[in-house]
Amino acid sequence: MMISQLFILSSKGDHLIYKDYRGEAGSDVIDVFYEKVTALTGDQPPVVMSHKDLHFVHIRQGGLYWVATTTADSSPFSIIEFLNRLSGLVKDYCGSLSEKAIQMNFALIYELLDEVLDYGYVQMTSSDVLKNFIQSEAVSSKPFSLFDLSNVGLFGAETQQNKVAPSSAATRPIQSSRDPGGKSEIFVDVIEKMSVVIGSNGVLMKADIEGEVRVKCYMPSCSEMRIGLNEEFSVGKSQLRGYGAAVRVDECSFHQSVQLDEFHSHRILRLCPSQGEHAVMQYRLSDELPSAPPFRLFPSVERDSAGRLLMYLKLRCDLPPKSTAINLSASIPVPRGAVSLSQELSSPDQSAELQLQNRTVFWKIPRFCGGTQLSALFKLDVPGLSSASLLEVGPVGLSFELPKWTGTGLQIRFLRLSPVHPGPSQRWVRYVTHSDSYIIRI
Amino acid sequence: MTDSKYFTTNKKGEIFELKAELNNEKKEKRKEAVKKVIAAMTVGKDVRYTSRLDFECYLGSFHPSIFYFFSQDCEDPNPLIRALAVRTMGCIRVDKITEYLCEPLRKCLKDEDPYVRKTAAVCVAKLHDINAQMVEDQGFLDSLRDLIADSNPMVVANAVAALSEISESHPNSNLLDLNPQNINKLLTALNECTEWGQIFILDCLSNYNPKDDREAQSICERVTPRLSHANSAVVLSAVKVLMKFLELLPKDSDYYNTLLKKLSPPLVTLLSGEPEVQYVALRNINLIVQKRPEILKQEIKVFFVKYNDPIYVKLEKLDIMIRLASQANIAQVLAELKEYATEVDVDFVRKAVRAIGRCAIKVEQSAERCVSTLLDLIQTKVNYVVQEAIVVIRDIFRKYPNKYESIIATLCENLDSLDEPDARGAMIWIVGEYAERIDNADELLESFLEGFHDESTQVSWLKRTDVQVLVNSFFSFPHQDSDNPDLRDRGYIYWRLLSTDPVTAKEVVLSEKPLISEETDLIEPTLLDELICHIGSLASVYHKPPSAFVEGSHGIHRKHLPVQHSSIDTGESPVSGGPAAAMDQPHVIPSQGDLLGDLLNLDLGPPVNVPQVSSMQMGAVDLLGGGLDSLVGQNFIPSSVPSTFAPSPTPAPPAVSSGLNDLFELSTGMAIATGGFVAPKAVWLPAVKAKGLEISGTFSRRQGHMYMDMSFTNKALQHMNDFAVQFNKNSFGVIPTSPLPIHTPLMPNQSIEVSLPVNTIGPVMKMDPLNNLQVQDSFKCGLPQGSVLGPKSFILYLNDIFAVSNILKFIMFADDTNVFFSGNNMDEIIKDLVNVKGLHIIYSSLILPYLSCSEIWGNASKTNIDKLVKLEKNNL
C-alpha cells in the first residue's frame, strides 16, 4: 500500500491540507478530484476514481473530503481504513472535525501526517504511540460558554446534573487532558445497528444486528481497564452457555489492544486504552434475535368507492414498557400519480406528509413508548388508480433510535480502572440502537 | 491565538514579508514564517519564489554545511532527531546529493533505536527511487534484507514494504528471498506488529509459494487468527493469503473444509461498514464467490438488498445473490427478487427482473416458478417491468425450448406497450420462433415491419431473421432502402440465399441455435485466478488485471495461483526446450463462434453452415478491430491430444505391452514378438480443433519396422493439400524416415490412410518421457471456412485490392466487394470498357491475378456481374 498524496478538502473544494509523499503527481490533481467527485451521479460507485494513472480513494467525514491518491495497485480497503483512522485521529487531537478545526490546527495535522505516513507507507495510527512524537498543542475551537459552568454546582458542590454528561462532553481534544485542570473521563458506548425485514405475512424474514463497543478515553494515565460483559454472553451458534436467555452473537472481533485471557472464562475485556476513540469490540448477530423485533405493522390497503386509496396502518411497539423509541419515521411508498393526502393520526404530536417527487408518505412519531400502539389512516387521491397500482404500495421503511436498549441484550456489567486513579474520574456507559434498515413489506 | 490567521493574510507584498521573516534572527519568528509558507502552499498560492529561494540558499551556498548538519543530526543522542534527519534527507529528491546520504543512512540502518531503523528502511526505498543503481552498489539491499530478521516488528514491516516495492521494479531478481526461515520470521513478526505492518507482511506472504501442502497448511494456521482482526484491511489481506494457499491443500482434507468454514464469517463482517467499504468488499466477495462458491453458500441472506443501500451496492449484491442461487435457496431468492421488482428505482427493478431470468437459466428446477413470477410481474403492466420480463422470457425460451409456450398468448397481449428495441426484438424473436403455434404471426410481424425504419439496427437484424422465414416478399423492402451498410449487406446475404436456394436458406436460418449459457457474465478463469491473487487491491475493485491500469514503469509481473504439486505427473506437460518449445505452448483461440465472420466467408465458399443470428451483442467491431496482430504468423492451431498409451514413466515389463513399449524395445533390439499388440487408432486431433482436419492414428510394427499409421479425414468444406509431417524432438528419438506420403489434395469428406515409417535414430531429448502425443497441424495458406481467423485474413488479403487499377472504383463492405466503373453515358462506358477489353477481361486480367497471387480463390459462381444502368453509374 503506497499512498502518493493525501489531501483534505472542504465540502466547497477549498484546499485545507495537502501533502505529497512520493512526488508522483502534481498538486493540480486536487482540482481534478473535486471536479470528478462533484460530477458523480448517485448510482456510480464513488469509492475509486481514476485519472490517467492516478487513483483517488476518498471518504467523507465531518463534511470534509479525505482523499488519498495512489499510482500502484494498492489496496483501497487499507486506504479507506487508514483515512477513517486518520480522521479519527484528527478528531481526537482537535476535538471535532470541521473546516475550522482543521484550519486552526494545520501545523499539528501536518505533524501528524509526517508521523503516520512515511513515503506513503502507513507507520502507526495509535494515538498512544503518536503522542510521543507530536509536539504541537491542539487549539480548541469551542468558545467559552456558560454552559460549561452548569456542571459546577453552587460552591463547588456536586449537582444532580453531574450524573448525565452533556452530549458535547465527548467532543474535546485529547491533548488538552494533559492540562492539570482537565477532567479524566472515560466513555463506553454500546452502539447497535439493526436491520430487519418483515414479510407481508408478518413473518420475520431477516434480522441482523451489527454492534460495537466504543471506548473514548480522556484519562491522562490509565494503565488498565476491565470491561465486564454479561456473563452469559456467547459467541457462535454452538456455544450456548447454560440455558435461559443467553446473550449470543454470531461473530465478534476485537481491537488489537484488547487482552482476551479473561474473556473466555469471565467475559471480561482487558485493555490499556490509548487516548481518543476506538472500537474495542465489534460483533454481529443474524437471524436469531433474543427478543421480538421492536415494531410490527398491521396494514390494510384498499380502494374505496370514490376511487381513493385507503391505507390504514396500525403500528405496535414491542419494546419493554420502560423503553422508548424516539424520532421514529415511517416511509410508505405510494402508487405513482398520487396527488394529495389526507390523514387521521392517533395523537397530535405525530405528523405526516406526502412527498411527491419520491412518491412517499412520511409518518413521523417523535416518541413511542414500549407496549403501546399507534394508528394512522391515510387517504390518497390517485387518478387512474387500478388494482395493479395497489401493488406499488410499500414496503414500509422505519427509521428510529432506541436509547438505553440493545437488540442483542449486551450489557456492560462493570467498568474498572486500575490502578485506581487518584483524582476525580468519571466513567460513562451509554447504550443506543439505531435502525439501519427496518423494512416491513405489505 | 490560533493558526487560522495564516490562512487569512492576503496582502500585497506578503512574499517579501515572508522572505524577511524567514531570514529573521529570532527562531520564533522564523517558525511563524515557515508556518505561513506552508499555509500558503496548501491554499495553492504561488509561493514557489520564496520557497525556492529558501531551498536554493540551503542547497546552493550552504551545500556542504547542510549535510554536515544532517550527518551531525544523525549522531544526535535523541533518536527522534536522528530519525527526523534521515527522513528529511530522503525527501530532498535531488540526484546530486544522494552521495552525501549514504554514510548517515548506513549508520542509521544499524542504529540501536528501532524508530530510527524503521525510518531508515523506508529511506532506502526513497533513495532507490532517486538512484536505483547506487542503492544496489552500496549494498543497502542486503542491509534491508537483514532487517527482516530484526527484533522489532515495526522495522520488519517497513523493511518488507520497502523490499516489496523495490522488487517490483526488478521482476526477476529474487530480492525478497522468501525461504522457509524468512517466512517463519515474518510469521513471528506478524503477531506483534501494528495492523499496517501486518498488511505489508500478509501481502508479502501471499507472494510466497510453499513447497508442499504441509507447509501451506502451517502458514494458513498461523494466518487464520488475523481473520478476526478489527481492521478490515488486515482481514482482507489474510483472506488473500488463505485463498491462494487453499489451492495447495488437498480438497478432501479436514483442514481444507474447516478453513473454508472459517473464511465465511469475516467476509460477512466486512459488509457491516459504510456503503463505500461495502462496495469494495462486495467486489472482492464477487471474485471469491466465483472462485469458491462453497465458502458463502450458506450466507446468501447477507446479500439480500437493504432498502436504503445505495444503488451501486444493491447491484453488486444482486449479482452475488444470483451466483449463490442454488436449488436449496431458490425459493427464498425468488421471493426477494419479486419484492425488488416492485421497488421505486427503475434501474434496480430492471436488474431484478433480469436476475429472475438468470435464476431460471441457472437452476433448472426453478424455471417454472421463475416463469410464473415473471408472468405475475407482467400483470402489473408497469411498462419497464413488462419489457424487461419479455426480454428475460426470450432467454428462458432459448434455454428450455418448447416448454413454456403456453404463456405466449399472455405475452402477445402486451405487444403494443413495447417501445424499447430490446424488448421488441425479443418479442419478434419469440413470435418468429413459435410462428407455427401463433395463428396470426404474420400479422403481428407485419405490424412490426411498419415501423421498420424507426427501429434501431438491433431490432432490424433480429427481425430479418424471422421475417424471411415467413414471408420473403417483405424482404425486398428493407434491403433496398436501408441506409445502414451493415444491415443492407445482411439483407443481401439473406436475399441471395433465399432467391437461389430456399432449402439451404431454411437450413441456415432455422439451424439449431446455440444454447444460452448458464452463467452469462463469469470472469474468464485465468483472469479470475489472477484477480484472486490481487484480492483487496484496486484490481479487485476494477475487476481488471493491474497491468491494465498501473503505469508500466514498475514492471508488474503477473501473479499466478500456485499449482498443486503432486508426485505423479498426470496432466499433459508441455514439451520444454528445443526449437519446438514455442509451438508447443497451447495457444487458446477464442472459441465463441464469430458469427459475423461466418457470414463473411459466404462469398468464398458454399454457405451451408451459417449459424443462426442469435447473439445480441454481435458487432462488427470485433471483426474489424483487434485480432489482426494475432493473425500474423499464427495460422496453425497447436493442440495436444492424449494418446491411448498407458502412462509408463519407467519402462514397463514387456508383458504389459502397449504400443509404445513395443516400439521402445524394438529400438533397443530386444523384440520379443513380431506383430505385437497394436493399439486401435485413436483420435489424435479432433476436427473441431484443427479446422476440420481430423487425424487419428496409432503406432504399429511390421516386419521389424515401426510405422505410424494415421488416417486423415477432411471434415471441412474445402480441399486440403500440402501435407507434411515434422516431429518435435522427443525422448525416444523418433523421427520419420520418409516424407508424409500424401500427394493428392484431400477433398471434403474424403479420408486417407497413410503409414509413415519411423525410426528412433533422431536426436533424443533428455527429459522424462512424455506420456502423451501432441499433434498439431499447420496450414500454409488460407484458412478453412468457419475458423475464427477466416474473416480477418480475408480482409487482410483483400485490403489492398484498390491498387490493381485506377480506373476501377472499389467499395468494400464487410462481406461483399463491389467494383464500380463509371462514365458519362452508356456509349462512353461501353467504349471504355471495350478499351479495357471487356468486363470479364477486367475480372480475369486484373482481379484474378491479384487474387491468385495472394492465394485466394474467387468463387466464380458467387461472383455476379450486374449491368444495371441506373443514372450514370454502372454497377459491375
From TrEMBL, chain A:
Residues 183-441 form the MHD domain. It is a peripheral membrane protein. One of its GO terms (biological process) is intracellular protein transport. This is MHD domain-containing protein. Keywords: Coated pit, Membrane, Protein transport, Transport. CDD domains: AP-4_Mu4_Cterm, AP4_Mu_N. The lineage of its organism: Eukaryota, Metazoa, Chordata, Craniata, Vertebrata. Belongs to the adaptor complexes medium subunit family.
Automatic annotation (TrEMBL), chain B:
InterPro entries: AP_beta, AP_complex_bsu_1_2_4, ARM-like, ARM-type_fold, Armadillo, Clathrin/coatomer_adapt-like_N, Clathrin_a/b/g-adaptin_app_Ig, Clathrin_app_Ig-like_sf. Gene3D superfamilies: 2.60.40.1150, Leucine-rich Repeat Variant. Its main location: membrane. It is found in: Endomembrane system. One of its GO terms (biological process) is vesicle-mediated transport. Residues 567-588 are annotated as: Disordered. Residues 680-784 form the Clathrin adaptor alpha/beta/gamma-adaptin appendage Ig-like subdomain domain. GO terms for cellular component: endomembrane system; membrane coat. It is a peripheral membrane protein. Keywords: Acetylation, Membrane, Protein transport, Transport. GO terms for molecular function: clathrin binding. The keyword Acetylation applies. It comes from the Eukaryota. The keyword Transport applies. Belongs to the adaptor complexes large subunit family. This is AP complex subunit beta.
